[in-house]
Amino acid sequence: MILVDEQDREVGTMPKMEAHEKALLHRAFSVFVMNQKGEVMLQRRASHKYHSPNLWTNTCCSHQRLGETNIEAGKRRLQEEMGFQTELKELFSFIYKAPFANGLTEYEFDHVMLGYYEDDPQVNPEEVSHWKWMRPGDIKKDMEVNKDRYTAWFRIIFERFFEYFLQKEKKL
């Protein structure tokens, strides 16, 4: 993983588990894919994931590799997890911290990206158990009632994405 400071400047590297155990700030990305109907593609994490198994989350997310741009990393992981590629645009970035019951912590400088896709994904069962399309307003409502069905980071990131989405809708 690429460790960063609060301005997203690289300060070192570390194995993923160690960075999560020590709760160190590292670079990450989150991809949201939407369709022409305005729905977001969600994935349900595979049951054997080391944290947050069987929870719903955004289309894909992960960590950049050394020398990889945010967009390159997003496209790579989208192909690895969901089995397709599309153009991505970076929307915004921010820092968040999400501790887990197993002692690990996601402390990320997260780059949030958006892409569009119309077909069904060809999900990697090692990463994803299910997927679905859902309208942003319906996601927000469901999270209010069933927050435990969603990953901790998705609940944080989605609030910011939803605000972006509302601003975009007002311009249409």
Please give a structural write-up.
With 172 residues, the chain is of the alpha+beta class. The protein has one domain: Nucleoside Triphosphate Pyrophosphohydrolase (Alpha-Beta Complex), CATH 3.90.79.10. It is 29% helix and 34% strand. The protein has helices at 16-22, 70-82, 136-145, 152-171, and strands at residues 2-4, 10-13, 26-34, 40-45, 56-57, 60-62, 88-99, 105-116, 128-134. It is globular and about 40 Å long. It starts with a strand and ends with a helix.
Please name the CATH topology.
Nucleoside Triphosphate Pyrophosphohydrolase
Question: CATH homologous superfamily name?
Answer: Nucleoside Triphosphate Pyrophosphohydrolase
Rg from alpha-carbon coordinates: 15 Å
Strand order, largest beta sheet: 6-3-8-7
- Total domain count: 1
Q: CATH class, anyone?
A: Alpha Beta
Order of helices and strands: EEHEEEEHEEEHH
Mean pLDDT: 94
| Total helical segments | 4
The CATH architecture name reads Alpha-Beta Complex
Helical amount among residues, as a percent range?
A: 25-40%
The proportion of residues in beta strands is: 25-35%
Count of individual beta strands: 9
Major sheet attributes: 4 strands, mixed
How far is the N terminus from the C terminus? 39 Å
Inertia-based shape: globular
Unreliably modeled segments: none
| Structural class based on helices, strands and sheet pairing | alpha+beta
Search tags:
172 residues, alpha+beta, Nucleoside Triphosphate Pyrophosphohydrolase, four-stranded mixed β-sheet, three-stranded antiparallel β-sheet, 34% strand, globular
